[in-house]
Amino acid sequence: MTTRLTAGDPLGRVEDRIGHRFQDRRLLEQALTHASALASGDTGGSYQRLEFLGDRVLGLAVASMLHRHYPRADEGELARRLNHMVKRETCAEIAQDLKLGDAMRISQSEAQTGGRTKTALLADICEAVIAAIYLDAGMATAEDFVRRQWEPRMLTFSGPLRDAKTTLQEWAQARSLPAPTYSVIDRSGPDHAPVFVVGVKVEGARPAEGRGGSKRIAEQAAAEAMLRREGVWND
Asked: Looking at the DSSP assignment, which residues form a beta bridge with residue 33?
């Protein structure tokens, strides 16, 4: 994509960084708008709906990359790699690299409490931008964006592929506690793109929740949430 002069054009600078020139800039504006910047009770113009869609587009794009790059990996390994690549922290890192927080529309009070650097908000707008690209130019263009940002991380990742459920079970056993129990709290979305919310309980600890496109992925997310909250995982 040819870069144009965008000194007086904040959205243009965002387009330069993400590598996509929008046909409908309203999509990009919405992707960068936090609910706090809107009138009370109005969330229709915020990034929330786009974030919902972008999460699914990202998951499919990364799953496709993993399937292509790791032909010998079994389903379990692919799932662990997927969980690592689409987790909140990874999305937030990419948002930081693209300086999306600087372009976010948020209220003054939210900005004063560090909203532009909050991991959760950065992860949300990253996924919202993916959805905006998808709606503006289609899946192939969205996949190109995901490939540019995620593939280098995927190919250079050398850390352990930790299984959250196994780690949580070992943590409970080390404390002579019963095994963790998982239950589906909610299921939403169409049959071809379901979203599961799963809860996990361990005796003596507050329950935790996770979500994902399958019960297995949601269980892993719930286990990871508890491990992080209990300080077992800190990275």
From this structure: 105
**Is 110 annotated for ligand binding?**
no
**pLDDT one-digit tens code per residue, 193-230:** 788 999 999 999 999 999 887 888 889 889 989 998 99
On whether 93 is known to bind a ligand per the annotation, the reply is no
Answer CATH for 10-156 from 1.10.1740.10, 1.20.20.10, 1.10.1520.10, 4.10.1110.10: 1.10.1520.10
pTM over 0.85: no
Separation between Cα atoms, residue 25 and residue 28, nearest integer Å: 5
Q: In what side-by-side order are the strands of the sheet with 195-201?
A: 181-188, 195-201, 208-212
Tens digits of residue pLDDT in 66-87: 999 999 988 878 888 888 899 8
Asked if residues 186 and 199 have their Cβ atoms less than 8 Å apart, the reply is no
Q: Which CATH class is domain 164-229?
A: alpha beta
Active site members: 55, 127
Strands (E), the chain: 181-188, 195-201, 208-212
